Amino acid sequence: MADKEPRRPFRGDLSRDEQLGTLPGDTRPEEIPELTECAAKVLARSADGDLFFVGRYPDSLHDLLSGVLADTPHLSRLHRLPLSLHGTGGRDLTPDERVQLRADLTASGITPAGMAARERPLVLVDLVHDGTTFGHLHRELRAWIDEERVAWNVIRRGLRYLGITVRHHTGPHTRRWQQHAEWTRELPASSVGNVSVPGPLWRYLGDRRGTIEPPFRRAHRADPGAAAPRHDDHPREALGEAPSLRDHGLTRRARARVHRALTTEPAFRDPWLRTLAHTLRSSGGSR
Fold this sequence. Notes:
Blueprint lengths: L31 H13 L5 E5 L4 H10 L9 E4 L13 H13 L4 H6 L4 E6 L4 H17 L3 H4 L3 E8 L25 E6 L1 H14 L5 H4 L11 H17 L2 H12 L7 H13 L4
Parallel strand pairs: 1-2, 1-3, 3-4, 4-5
Helix pairs in contact: 1-2, 1-10, 2-9, 10-11
C-alpha cells in the first residue's frame, strides 16, 4: 500500500499572529485559575517528558503552557496530536485508515523506532471519561510496534498516559478509569496517571472546546481538504482563544500560580522540576 501524506487540521502558529487574521478579543475562560493549576499539574506529572496533547479537548492546556514555557527549554516539549479515536471512531480501522493514522502519527514524531530511541518519556495527555481514546490509540501503537519488530520492553518504560478527569470524593468505591482498562496492565503502574479537575473546568474543556473546534475523526482524516483553513465562526473563536491563553501564560500572575502548584507536587523533589520552577520564578513574566 502506497505511503500516505499526513493530514492535520489547520491551526495557525501562535508565534505568528499574522496567520490568525482578525480575531475576537480576550476570550479567556472564567475557569482560568483552575486551568492554570491543571496545566501546572500536567507539567509536574510529565516525568520530564514530551507532552502530546491528544485531540481538541486539551488544546487550552497546550496554549496556556506555550506561554508559561515561552522562554524556557521546555517549550519544545509541547506537541499537539490532532486525532479523535473516541468510541466507535477508533474501532475496526480499515487497512487504508490504519496507514493514514500511522502517517499522521509519524508527522507528529511518533513511530515505533523513534519511541524505542527516545531519551525522554512520551506522555499522551487527554480529557478522559472512560479512556476509550487512550485504549484505541494504545492498541494501534502496540500493533504497529509488533509489526515493526521493535522492542516493546524498551518502549513501555518510556510511554505514559495522563488523563484529565473529573474530581470526585475519594474512597474505596471510587471508580478510576484505568482500573477497568485491561491494556493498562501492559505498563508500569506509574505510567498511567491522572490530573483531577473541578467539574466546571472538565465541562469547559469537553463541552466548549467540542463546540468551537471540530473533531478530527476518521472521516476527516480521509478528507484531502482537512488541512485547509475553515472560514466559519467556530474555528475563528477557537483561534481567538488560543493566543489569549498563550498571552495569559506569559504573565507574572500565571507563572507565579504555576510555580506555587509545582512546589506542592510530589515530583518537586526531582531536580528537573525544581530547576524548571526556579526558571519560571526568575523569568518574571510580561506583566
